[in-house]
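Re: beginner question about structure tokens

> Can someone show what the tokenized structure looks like for a real chain? I only ever see the sequence side.

Sure, here's an example I had lying around. Input first:
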Amino acid sequence: MIFTSLSLELIAYILDLLGSTQDMTSIASTNQFFRYMCKKNGVIKDIVQSSGNDFLEFWIGCHRSDLSALHTIVIKKVVNPSAWLNIKWPKRVEILDCNARYIGPNEDDCSTSELVIVLNNFYSPLPVFVEINWNKFKNLLELFLRIGMTNLANFHNCKLLEKICIDFTISDCSLPTYFGDFYYLKILITNLVGDKPIKFISPLLDICVCPKKCDFTAVSTRISPRYLLKNDFR
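And the corresponding structure tokens:
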């Protein structure tokens, strides 16, 4: 089948499934039609920046480029990752080995990010409290968080969460009971301590791994009872 015989909407959908800028560039180089389609729908799929990159060059490049197709941005080993994320956040954001003190989009509207990975904080010898504006992550589906600590007071606003992996290096933090209210939750892995009974209302829950001082309960028939029982895991 010849691709050009497909509708423009279907071709745009196929291009949206491609995961890397290299893939888009390769397709754009095949012929004039795909060059036009890639230019129309955006070519840049992923951005990876680290401490070795020039910030001014990165900032100018982002504000001069079409980032409408951007799917992933990875920021590694920078002192202030927020400065590098002063753009509309894509679906996947990774902040790795940084010295993050604040995490959250700067624009007024909510982030469209569905997956956020924050593995902090190898620049600092001590655990650091990271402020996270959870109100801006209402589309969040997956969270992988390894930091000193953060405030979880508004975390319940991330109602679509399916996977939660939280590791606080400051120990003995309690698991909020509202974690049981995440209706779409499938996986919970954390070192937060369950010191109060929690009932998980998600019918999709498969895994619940955390220290428990008391038994949990769950609506889901998919989870093994052993994941809900009191344990001495620390």
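Each token stands for a local structural state, so reading them left to right follows the chain. The chain has three domains: 1-43, 44-170, 175-234.
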